[in-house]
Write a structure and sequence with these properties.
Elements: H1 2-14, H2 17-35, H3 41-48, H4 57-82, H5 93-140, H6 144-161, H7 166-181, E1 183-184, E2 191-192, H8 206-225, H9 243-265, H10 272-285, H11 298-320, H12 327-338, H13 347-350, H14 352-373, H15 377-381, H16 388-407, H17 410-428, H18 434-456, H19 468-501
Antiparallel strand pairs: 1-2
Helix pairs in contact: 1-14, 2-4, 2-14, 3-4, 3-12, 4-5, 4-11, 4-12, 4-14, 5-9, 5-11, 5-14, 6-7, 6-10, 6-18, 6-19, 7-18, 8-16, 8-17, 9-10, 9-11, 10-11, 16-17
Organism: Saccharothrix syringae (Nocardiopsis syringae)
Keywords: Membrane, Transmembrane, Transmembrane helix
InterPro entries: DUF112_TM (IPR002823)
């Protein structure tokens, strides 16, 4: 009951006119900046951090919460309409959202994403209120072998369900892992694949890779086929979800938060792994598996609800442990310290009013996000009517701005176009782009967790499987790898039996 009473007090603070205005401003800014390729919510919060110096702490964090959720939805918008994610958590939305948009169902994909964000965020924030101390306590017990097992599961899952063949999926994964190796080894300080360039010493930024492979690669691919295929404006279609869309979406909307929230709350988690796992789960459970990758609405609804719930989960470890699990949480942690506030176990006691106002503002921000963006879905979808030469020229412009804004270095622009050419070649030979992105995002972290686990076990490989949790995860990995073979044998047995009877 204490949590409910505190939340009611938080709503009393968050619903004041000034704080409502800041929440609405945060949602609008987050959505607008999230739409720009490469400029995600973390960069938006970082850029706006100096602007909030004059604000009192509660108002500043209410605005940050709006930017966080708005940025995540904005990234999904460009993923769906232009196959260009605004941030890494929006990568999965492109797999089925973009084919839906090309088929004239962009408004339905955006509506499914908006409602998914709302449902996932509401459920995630309710769980944040009820389970924050318990989840944080459990998260502390997860060790390096468990983290590595989860990342291996993400690698195998994403390469098993994408692309024309598993071989091509694993080839794409290896390309991403190679790019992820570029830079200084964190443990030894040795340079790897830098070719003597100081610009590569810090590695290749994930934003540059994602924007290059998606935005630049897609633009070059479209440009290469413009003369062969005459431009026909993509129809916008009807603006609202039909009965069949609702029937296929409501279960993924409810399943997504159950995957997203725990992963978001785990230190070193984030929205990338759970969104991939949500996509795999929906494909396994759906009756329309053949539509996945071609425009299945479940492939948008589930991961988007997962992403939003994961965003609420990241606040658990940030507020209760002082451990940021995403870039946005890290920037918000810096903002807390800017105001002389230290997140941790005592935060709920020392800054109770601020924390509960922040949590209440998450509910307010989600409602504002739905109210603002659901009616705008048909308007966003009309972006597809812009002639492709102008549209992709604009994408390249904003992609260049996003890549340059990461470090303010011209070298990042050159690197973006080089990796963009790689993305073009991958499309030419049928290699899926997503496994490469996953490998770049998770590869370095997986390497660090593996090496820590091996150090703890004095180099013994048993150190990777010495916990019940890691064993359970590896069992799922084996099942994913063996399932196609088992299914083939099961199908072949009745056929051979019928032949023998004949």
């Amino acid at each position: 009951m204490d949590a409910i009473d505190n939340l009611v007090g938080g709503f009393a603070t968050a619903l004041t006119p000034g704080h409502l205005l800041l929440a609405a401003l945060g949602v609008l800014l987050g959505t607008a900046i999230g739409v720009l390729p490469g400029i995600g919510p973390a960069m938006a919060v970082a850029l706006l951090l100096p602007v909030t110096y004059g604000l009192e702490p509660t108002g500043a964090f209410i605005m940050f919460a709006g930017i966080y959720y708005g940025g995540m939805f904005g990234g999904s918008t460009t993923s769906i309409l232009l196959n260009t994610p605004g941030e890494s958590a929006a990568v999965v939305a492109a797999i089925d959202g973009n084919p839906m948009a090309r088929a004239g169902r962009g408004a339905q994909a955006l509506a499914a994403a908006a409602i998914g964000h709302f449902v996932g965020g509401i459920i995630g924030t309710v769980l944040l209120v009820l389970l924050a101390p318990t989840v944080a306590k459990l998260a502390v017990d997860i060790g390096a072998p468990d983290f590595f097992a989860i990342m291996v599961l993400a690698f195998i899952a994403v390469t098993s369900v994408l692309g024309a063949s598993r071989v091509r999926g694993f080839a794409s994964l290896l390309i991403g892992l190679a790019v992820g190796l570029v830079g200084l080894d964190e443990m030894t300080g040795q340079q790897r694949l830098t070719f003597g360039s100081l610009h590569l010493a810090d590695g290749v930024d994930v934003v540059v890779v994602a924007v290059a492979l998606f935005a630049v690669g897609e633009s070059l691919w479209v440009a290469a086929h413009l003369r062969r295929k005459p431009h026909r404006p993509i129809p916008v279609g009807r603006p609202w979800l039909g009965r069949e869309d609702w029937r296929r979406s409501w279960k993924p909307w409810l399943r997504g938060p159950l995957i997203g929230f725990p992963f978001g709350a785990v230190p070193a988690g984030g929205a990338e792994i759970p969104t991939f796992l949500s996509y795999v789960t929906e494909k396994r459970l759906s009756k329309h598996r053949d539509q996945f990758g071609k425009g299945a609405i479940e492939g948008v609804a589930g991961p988007e609800a997962t992403s939003s719930a994961s965003a609420a989960g990241t606040l658990v470890s940030m507020l209760t442990l002082g451990l940021p699990t995403t870039a946005v949480a890290a920037v918000m942690l810096a903002a807390f310290q800017q105001y002389g506030i230290q997140p941790g176990p005592l935060l709920f006691e020392r800054e109770s009013a601020l924390v509960w106002a922040l949590i209440a503002s998450l509910f307010v921000g989600l409602c504002l996000l739905l109210v603002l963006n659901l009616p705008l879905a048909p308007v966003w979808a009309k972006l597809l009517r812009i002639p492709r030469p102008y549209l992709y020229a604009g994408i390249l412009f904003f992609a260049s701005v996003g890549a340059y804004a990461v470090n303010g270095d011209v070298f990042d622009l050159l690197l973006m176009f080089v990796i963009g050419l790689l993305g073009f070649v991958m499309r030419r030979y049928g290699l899926p782009v997503l496994p490469a992105i996953i490998a770049v995002i998770l590869g370095p972290a997986a390497e660090q967790q593996m090496r820590r686990a091996l150090q703890l076990s004095d180099g013994s490989l048993t150190g990777l499987v010495n916990t019940p949790f890691s064993v359970a995860v590896y069992a799922v990995v084996v099942l994913l790898l063996a399932w196609p073979l088992v299914r083939r044998l099961v199908r072949r047995a009745p056929a051979e039996r019928s032949r023998a009877d004949a």
